Amino acid sequence: MADNSNRLQPGRRQFLSKAAATATLLALAPGVRLVDLARARAEDEPVTAAVRWGMLIDTTKCAQGCDACVRACDTEFGLTTSDRPEIDAHYIRKLDIRDEHTGKTYSLPMLCQHCEHPPCVDVCPTGASFRRADGMVLVDKHTCIGCRYCMMACPYKARSFIHEELTTQLSHAPRGKGTVESCTFCAHRVDRGQMPACVESCAAEGHHAMVFGDVNDASSEIGKRVRQVPSRQVRADLNLNTAVRYEGL
Q1: Domains contained in the chain, CATH given
Q2: How far is Cα 98 from Cα 72, in angstroms, rounded to an integer?
Q3: What whole-number distance in Å separates Cα of residue 174 and Cα of residue 171?
Q4: What DSSP element (H or E) covers 226?
Q5: Dihedral angle sign, alpha carbons of residues 231, 218, 51, 191
Q6: CB 193: neighbour CB atoms within 10 A?
Q7: Are 113 and 242 in contact (CB under 8 A)?
Q8: Strand pairing of 53-58 and 244-247?
Q9: Cβ atoms of residues 124 and 141 within 8 Å
Q10: Helix (H) or strand (E) holding 229
Q11: What would the DSSP string read from start to end of 18-48?
Q12: Angle, nearest 10°, between helix axes 68-77 and 197-204?
């Protein structure tokens, strides 16, 4: 795996400082809605359907007992921390599964699959669950009413209900009091030209089981991999066209 854990595309670095400063101001400014923060981009690089962010997870490299991706995600979003014991949620959970025919076991991270046709968006009565043009499925936590219909609709059990006091929150992950949350593909990092926290942590552990990037770009690492090696969706029978694929499963 090439050493690209800190950057997605070299050309994007030219607007990094401006984009990061803009996102910070939006997150801290009174009255700013989370949906605006989630969609914030540099003016010269809007979100478009030309890009579709995706992740390829190689289950042959994902080590059983390793939870580096889970811990990195928890830290990035302030989940299950000692100073906030009331939050008991994870955006990623590790699953150990066994093939009943061969007896072979696999370990894999399960997270929001960022479906092209997300059931969570279909059932949301307020429009709080939405899909960005670049494929990221997110929640506007200022519009979410906590009905949890999306949690029931998600076939991957990838969403959590969090009830937290509205104080001392992370600027890049503000949350309402009693709203649903799930993996965002670290939109705030990706929009700055960085990799998701889970991908960086997996590489730091030496496993390199997670590859992230633009699946529409045939020249990118993930674009090459999904075209060269067999991979599969979890619950492909649902025809959701997930952005997360698993290799070796």
Answers
A1: 14-208 (3.30.70.20)
A2: 26
A3: 6
A4: helix 221-228
A5: positive
A6: 21
A7: yes
A8: parallel
A9: no
A10: none
A11: HHHHHHHHHHHSTT--HHHHHH---TTS---
A12: 140
- Give me 236's structure tokens: 């492909």
Q: Ramachandran region of residue 22, left (φ > 0), alpha (ψ -120 to 50) or beta? A: alpha
Q: Which two tokens stand for residue 165?
A: 């006091």
Report residue 16 as tokens. Answer: 């990094």
Global confidence as pTM: 0.79
**Two tokens, residue 48:** 């478009």
Please list the pLDDT of the chain residue by residue as tens digits (249 residues): 444 444 454 444 443 344 444 433 333 334 444 444 444 455 457 788 899 999 999 999 999 899 999 999 999 998 865 556 556 788 999 999 888 888 888 899 999 999 999 999 999 999 999 999 999 999 998 899 999 999 999 999 999 998 877 677 788 888 878 899 999 999 999 999 999 999 999 999 999 999 999 999 999 999 999 999 999 999 999 999 999 999 998
Q: Are the C-beta atoms of 162 and 181 separated by less than 8 Å?
A: yes
What is the DSSP annotation of 69-138?
Answer: HHHHHHHHHT-SBTTBTT----S-EEEEEE-TTT--EEEEEE-----SS-HHHHH-SSS-EEE-TTS-EE
d(CA 236, CA 213): 21
**Cβ neighbour number for residue 35 with a 10 Å cutoff:** 18
Q: How many residues does the chain have?
A: 249
Cβ neighbours of residue 60 closer than 8 Å, sequence gap 6 or more? 247, 248
With tokens 């009830």, the residue in question is: 163
Q: Are 115 and 242 in contact (CB under 8 A)?
A: yes
